[in-house]
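thought: user wants a sequence for this fold. calling inverse folding tool.
action: design(structure=
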C-alpha cells in the first residue's frame, strides 16, 4: 500500500490520472477502476487517507494555494497528466429564505472554485498530453434544481459552463472535456436524505432505484478512454431517467 508520501512509478502505457475527492463514494469508485486498468493514480482529498496502489495527498480544493501545491506534487510524481477527474463536493442544504451567506458561499467555494483551482493548475500539463481528458462530476440538480439546494444547484450548474468553455479552449490540443450528472446515488451523501425524502426521490426515478457508484464510475472511465476521443462538451445524466426531456 502506498502511503500519502510514497512516490509513484508509472509503467509504460499507463495513463496518469488525478482524482479530486478520491477517498469516498463516486471518487473512490473512479480511483479503483483506473487502478484496476493499470493506470497511475493520485487522489486528492481533504483527509489524504491512504488507498491501496495510489498516491493519496491531503488537499483542500477550496484553497487555491493548497491546490497549487498538491497538483504540482501530483504532476511531478506522475511525470505528466492525462486525466483529471473533478469530483470533490459538499452540500449544505437549506431553504433560500433561511440560507446564510456562509452556507451559500462555502458550497460554491468547494464545488465550483474547487473545480476551477485544479483545472487552472493542470491545463498546461493536459495540453502537453495530446490525449488529455477532463471529467466534471456535477449533478442532475444542475438541470432540475432542488428544494433546499439553491447553493448546490448553482455550484453544479456552474460546472457545465466551466466545462464547455474548457472544452473549446483545449480542443485544438485534442483534449476532451465532459460533464457527468449523477442523480440519486447510493453514497454517504445520498443516504443522508431523510428516509421519506429518499423514498419519494426513488419513486420519481423511472428505473425505480438509486444508482450505484460503479455505474457512474464506468461512464467516467469510458469518457477518459481512447474510444471516447470524439466526445467533448457533452453533459450526460446518470440518473435512471429522472432528467429525460430536460
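)
observation: tool returned 246 residues.
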Amino acid at each position: 500500500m502506498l502511503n500519502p508520501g510514497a512516490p509513484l512509478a508509472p509503467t509504460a502505457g499507463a495513463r496518469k490520472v488525478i482524482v479530486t475527492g478520491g477517498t469516498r463514494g463516486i471518487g473512490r469508485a473512479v480511483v479503483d477502476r483506473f487502478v484496476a486498468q493499470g493506470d497511475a493514480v493520485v487522489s486528492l482529498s481533504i483527509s489524504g487517507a491512504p488507498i491501496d496502489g495510489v498516491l493519496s495527498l491531503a488537499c483542500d480544493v477550496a484553497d487555491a494555494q493548497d491546490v497549487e501545491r498538491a497538483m504540482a506534487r501530483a504532476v511531478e510524481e506522475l511525470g505528466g497528466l492525462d486525466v483529471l477527474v473533478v469530483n470533490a463536493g459538499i452540500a449544505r442544504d437549506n431553504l433560500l429564505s433561511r440560507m446564510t451567506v456562509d452556507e451559500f458561499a462555502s458550497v460554491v467555494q468547494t464545488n465550483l472554485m474547487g473545480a476551477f483551482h485544479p483545472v487552472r493548475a493542470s491545463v498546461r500539463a493536459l495540453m502537453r498530453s495530446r490525449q488529455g481528458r477532463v471529467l466534471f462530476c456535477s449533478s442532475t440538480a444542475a438541470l432540475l434544481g432542488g428544494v433546499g439546494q439553491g447553493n448546490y444547484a448553482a455550484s453544479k450548474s456552474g460546472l457545465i459552463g466551466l466545462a464547455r468553455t474548457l472544452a473549446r479552449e483545449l480542443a485544438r490540443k485534442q483534449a476532451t472535456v465532459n460533464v457527468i450528472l449523477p442523480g440519486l446515488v447510493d453514497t454517504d451523501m445520498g443516504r443522508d436524505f431523510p428516509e421519506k425524502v429518499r423514498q419519494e426521490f426513488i419513486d420519481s426515478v423511472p428505473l425505480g432505484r438509486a444508482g450505484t457508484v460503479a455505474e457512474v464510475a464506468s461512464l467516467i472511465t469510458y469518457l477518459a478512454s481512447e474510444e471516447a476521443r470524439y466526445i467533448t462538451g457533452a453533459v450526460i445524466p446518470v440518473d435512471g431517467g429522472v432528467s429525460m426531456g430536460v
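thought: summarizing for user.
answer: Here is the designed sequence. The mean pLDDT is 94.
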